[in-house]
């Protein structure tokens, strides 16, 4: 059961216009995860220094130390809890945190996408799934 | 689930109380956490020394943390102590992140979590920027730590296959994360130093130091048989990674797509089986699933709608979910008859889960009528 809280709802709320950038951000995260899984990009500090997304970079640093599961989830949840950003920036941090957990747990692309897309809202998530399916079919 | 954990924090502790943050204040907080790490590492199991430290602490939260650890408080009781002390408030009142940090650190120590990980949890309460700089500080500190292991080999599955396993470092690294450090360390406890060095090079300096200490602790704590069992479990996880990645390499269809395109489903069969899953009690459904093999569940997933997938998958562990998805990928196209048999097998197992062990002759099973009719209809199909 997911509890809900007005403060959290206010912090995470953003306009539908803002939400439009989320699918491309998810593509970027999935692409990074793919590179890590293939060994093209190693989640160590040298290669990560060019990563501009501070939250994602920090999460990958933790993964590179072998952290995963409950502990990693606890650290990421705390970072989100004390995060001072709001709206779409906060939502992006939430999505990045889910992506980091997926990478740490060795989940494949399909599972990762299914976890991240719901953050776009149900309509956008369904559209993206349908689009991906038609691309696969092609 | 991450968002669930975050929401729980908001519900339990309210939004974090914003206070005027001066650099001095932040530095003092960071310094206190570094000191905490050093004291926990130095005192180890020495409760008397911890008690002495608690007496010297001036700040209430820090004092309470040391005191609780000195008195060997159970992890579950730590939170109560913080609440009763008046430092924290339950419910929607806004609490100070600094105080929540001391609670989290004390709880984690009481749970026996490695001090370095406790430090990472605590520094997260200071925000991303501070967490990042503290991570770098900890990494430098790890490089200076002098933890040495001696040679100790326990023959087992992993020691027999370690060379081959290490030839794929990416998969090995992923297995360490999936297994978690305690299991990985128990498994590595029986490996030779030559291989342990190669394993430690796969993680960063912090992870490497934590693993070294955990391996040393596992060697003291575990007997050979237990190390063997851990080796078996680790290798099992490693092999599972292999089957999953090879399935992906072969370009096989993944997840739901696999059964969407490979079967000619009977819509009525799918609707009935879905309704059964949606109507059955979660507890009974869980018991039924635990009596089924991964392949049987994979077959069942072909006979139901996505809404029922969600329900079934939410009742099983993540590890098993992965195995089932792999099983789906390895299954060939199925016929309508096979789907019917799979659905009927599930219905029979569900019925036996509903049956109490001491069911007397003539006594009827306590199954809701709607569900009973659905099961009868499914079992009566040919």
Write the layout of secondary structure elements.
The complex is a heterodimer of chains A (138) and B (382).
Chain A lengths: L5 H7 L3 H4 L2 H17 L6 H4 L5 H11 L4 H14 L4 H18 L4 H8 L5 H16 L1
Helix pairs in contact in A: 3-7, 3-8, 5-7, 6-7, 7-8
Chain B lengths: L1 H12 L9 H21 L3 H10 L3 H11 L4 H10 L12 H14 L4 H10 L3 H17 L12 H10 L2 H11 L1 H8 L4 H8 L4 H17 L2 H26 L5 H8 L4 H13 L2 H9 L3 H8 L4 H9 L3 H13 L5 H19 L14 H11 L3
Helix content of chain A: over 70%
Low-confidence stretches of chain B: 251-263
Radius of gyration of chain A: 15 Å
Number of strands of chain A: 0
Main sheet overview of chain A: none
Portion in helices of chain B: over 70%
Mean pLDDT of chain B comes to 84
State the order of secondary-structure elements of chain A, H for helix, E for strand: HHHHHHHHH
**Structural class, from helix and strand content of chain A?**
mainly alpha
Count up the helices of chain A: 9
Strand content of the residues of chain A, in percent?
under 5%
């Amino acid at each position: 059961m997911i509890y809900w809280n007005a403060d959290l709802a206010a912090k995470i709320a953003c306009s539908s216009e803002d939400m439009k950038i989320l699918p491309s951000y998810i593509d970027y995260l999935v692409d990074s995860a793919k590179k890590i899984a293939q060994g093209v990009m190693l989640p160590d500090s040298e290669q990560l220094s060019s990563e501009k997304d501070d939250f994602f970079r920090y999460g990958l640093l933790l993964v590179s130390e072998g952290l995963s599961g409950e502990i990693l989830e606890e650290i990421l949840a705390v970072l989100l809890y004390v995060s001072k950003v709001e709206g779409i920036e906060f939502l992006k941090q939430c999505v990045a945190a889910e992506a980091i957990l997926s990478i740490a747990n060795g989940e494949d692309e399909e599972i990762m996408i299914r976890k991240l897309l719901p953050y776009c809202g149900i309509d956008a998530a369904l559209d993206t799934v349908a689009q991906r399916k038609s691309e696969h079919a092609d | 689930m991450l968002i669930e954990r975050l929401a729980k924090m908001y519900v339990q502790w309210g939004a974090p109380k914003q206070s005027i943050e001066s650099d001095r204040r932040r530095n003092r907080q960071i310094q206190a956490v570094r000191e905490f790490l050093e004291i926990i590492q130095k005192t180890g199991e020495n409760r008397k020394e911890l008690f002495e430290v608690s007496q010297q602490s001036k700040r209430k939260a820090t004092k309470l943390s040391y005191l609780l650890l000195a008195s060997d408080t159970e992890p579950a009781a730590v939170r109560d102590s913080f609440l009763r002390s008046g430092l924290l408030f339950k419910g929607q009142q806004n609490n100070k992140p600094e105080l929540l940090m001391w609670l989290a650190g004390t709880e984690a120590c009481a749970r026996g979590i490695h001090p370095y990980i406790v430090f990472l949890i605590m520094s997260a309460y200071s925000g991303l920027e501070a967490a990042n700089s503290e991570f770098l500080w900890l990494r430098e500190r790890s490089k200076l730590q002098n933890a040495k292991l001696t040679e100790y080999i326990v023959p087992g599955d992993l020691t027999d296959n370690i060379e081959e396993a290490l030839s794929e470092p990416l998969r090995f690294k992923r297995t360490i994360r999936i297994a978690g450090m305690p299991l990985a360390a128990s498994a590595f406890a029986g490996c030779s130093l030559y291989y342990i060095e190669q394993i430690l090079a796969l993680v960063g300096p912090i992870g490497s130091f934590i693993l070294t200490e955990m391996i040393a602790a596992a060697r003291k704590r575990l007997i050979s048989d237990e190390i063997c069992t851990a080796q078996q479990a680790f290798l099992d996880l490693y092999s599972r990674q292999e089957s999953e990645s090879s399935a992906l390499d072969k370009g096989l269809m993944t997840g739901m797509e696999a059964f969407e395109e490979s079967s000619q489903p009977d819509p009525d069969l799918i609707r009935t089986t879905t309704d059964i899953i949606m109507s059955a009690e979660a507890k009974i459904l869980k018991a039924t699933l635990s009596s089924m093999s991964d392949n049987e569940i994979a077959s069942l997933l072909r006979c139901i709608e996505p809404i029922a997938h969600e329900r079934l998958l939410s009742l099983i562990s993540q590890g098993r979910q992965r195995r089932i998805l792999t099983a789906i990928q390895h299954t060939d196209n199925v016929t309508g008859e096979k789907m019917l048999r799979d659905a009927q097998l599930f219905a029979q197992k569900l019925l036996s889960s509903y049956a109490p062990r001491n069911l007397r002759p003539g006594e009827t099973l306590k199954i809701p009528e709607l569900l009973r009719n659905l099961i009868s209809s499914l079992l009566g199909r040919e």
